Amino acid sequence: MDMPAGEPRYRCRSCQHSFQVAYCYEGNKAGTPEKIIQLAMNGSSVRDTSWVLGVSITTVIAHLKKIKTGHRESPANSSPS
Predict the structure, then answer these.
(1) Is pLDDT above 50 for 74?
(2) CA distances for 77 relative to 5, 36, 66, 69, 73, angstroms
(3) pLDDT of 47-63, one tens digit each?
(4) Alpha carbon of 6 to those of 20, 32, 36: distances in Å?
(5) Between the N and C ends of the chain, which has fewer C-beta atoms within 10 Å?
(6) Which tops the pLDDT comparison, 8 or 74?
(7) Residue 31, CA atoms < 13 Å, CB-side half-sphere
(8) Are 3 and 20 in contact (CB under 8 A)?
(9) What letter does residue 2 receive in the DSSP assignment?
C-alpha cells in the first residue's frame, strides 16, 4: 500500500505492526525522540529544538507530551507496597 508521500508501508505478519523502511519526514526518523529529550534536558526551548532538528514545533511538543505521560505511568516512580 502506498502512502501519499510515495513510500510503501509494510506490515509485520506476526504482530501486525505497520512501518516504513525509509521515512521522508524528520520527525519520524529513528533517533529524533531521543534528540528531542537530550535537547530538552540541556535547556533548549521548543523553538530551538524545532529549528535544530528541522521538525515542527508541534512535533517537538507531541514527543515531549508522550515522554511526560509515559514517565508518570512508569512503575519505577510508584511507591513501594
Answers:
(1) no
(2) 40, 22, 16, 12, 8
(3) 999 999 889 999 899 88
(4) 11, 21, 27
(5) C
(6) 8
(7) 1
(8) yes
(9) B
- Sorted by where each begins, the domain ranges of the chain are 26-75
Name the 3-class secondary structure at 74.
coil
**What is d(CA 61, CA 46) in angstroms, rounded to the nearest whole number?**
7
Query: What does each C-alpha distance from 15 to 12, 31, 56, 79 come to in angstroms?
Result: 6, 23, 31, 33
Q: What is the DSSP string of 13-27?
A: TTT--EEESS-SSGG
Nearest Cα to Cα of residue 23 among 53, 48, 46, 3: 3
Q: Chain-wide mean pLDDT for the chain?
A: 76
